Structures are given as structure tokens and as C-alpha cells.
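Hi, does anyone understand the following?
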Amino acid sequence: MSEIVTLSRHADGYVTVAIDRPERMNALNLDVWQRLGDLFLDLSADGCVRAVVLRGAGDKAFAPGADIEEFDTVRATAAQARIYDDVMRRAFNAVYECAHPTIAMIHGACVGGGLELAALCDLRLAGRSARFGVPINRISVVMGYPELIGLKRLIGPARTLEVLLEAQILDAEKALAWGLVNRVVEDVALEDEVKACLKRMLGGAPLANRWHKKFVRRLDDPSPISQEEMDECYEFLATKDYAEGVNAFKSRRKPDFKGE
């Protein structure tokens, strides 16, 4: 299991998580979902991590969806599908709730469960070869409520239904126009674009980045913001990073943030 999703740590504090099933174009099976859930839960609790890049290994596909070879083995009945979905949804929740900023780096096919997964990251950067869609009505498969959340949040109910009902496969430019991805570059430039994004992101204070991510996500919940939540907006004032940031600004030097 440990080889189908790989983790690489980088010196400047970010981590790359790669779905690594080249023989299946990085198709998502039960072991992949289990491993993704485990990794993202561990990474979220790791205060040394500053950002996470999620990608498919190689440059052919992010993930083309669920591995159809498992449909007759671990997803053949409603009882089996519920067990499978519990594992898959644990992974989705772990990615969505990761404390650190997440970037989906997308080459090639980003379809079905692959698109559902990418939609839960904070940013999506795509190469021009990227293709997006959820054509599951072609095999009479239904996307459940939890899996619809990320896509609907990004492009709204009308576009989501357009994707599902027409089984559209969107090219990268259309995905950009719809707001499904943040930016599109030539495939050969995608890795450099992700690194440039990370450089800008990692230049900021990690605690501030985590708070901003948390606050933006909280606004998806229509319930009123509590006084305790409002008070959290001022906790940065007691951090060492805030003192460092202000001092560095006054001294006209680059700040040395520690995540404290």
C-alpha cells in the first residue's frame, strides 16, 4: 500500500503527495483512498509542514477516476459500496480539512473521483493537457451528496448539473473560464508554475496562511460566527511570527517565520 501513494518532503517546508499507479493511469482504488486519508491526517497534524502539493505521478494523468476493476469486487452491492465510500470520504475529509494550504497539480485526466479530489484542494493549477469531467451517467453510476460538495462549491449548481447531465469533458481553458481551476499554463511550465506559487505562499507566515484557510472555509457554513470565533481573529497578535513580521518590515529585511 505504501508505494501506491508516495510522499516527498522538501527542504523549504512543503510536501508532495503523488498518486503513483502508472500502470492504471493513477486510477483510484480502495488502497489509494486509505493511504491518502492516512497521509493527509498525519500531515495536517505536522506543524513543520507549510503546504501540500497533490498530484498524479508522471505527466499523463492526475487521476482518471475510480479503478473500474474494483466495481465487481469491492463495490458490487450497496453494503460493499457503503464500506468503500466510508474509506473514500475519510480521504476527502482529510484533504479538505488539512490545516495547511493544498495545491492540486494537474496534468492530463482529472476525471470522476480525481476531479472530486482536486476540487477539495485550496488551489488547482493545470497544464494545458488537463481534462475534467464526471461522465458517470454513461455507466449509470451516481455521485452521492458528499462527493458533490466540492464541485458545487466551485462552479455552482447549474454548472455542476451541466457536467453531470451532459457528461461533459472540459478542456483546461473551459475549466479556467468556469472557475474550476485557478490557472492554466503549458504542460512543460506546470512544475515551475507550482514552484512559483509555493514560493509566494511560503514567503508568508504559516500561521497566517492556516488561519486564512480556516476562516475562508468557515464562511461556507451559514451559521452565525460566534464571539469565540471572532476572538480567534486576534490571536495572531500574540504570535512570535507577528512580532518577527513587523520587525522585519521596519528593518526592511526578509522575515524568518517559525510558525510560532
Remarks:
- The domain at 205-251 is CATH 1.10.12.10 (Lyase 2-enoyl-coa Hydratase; Chain  A, domain 2).
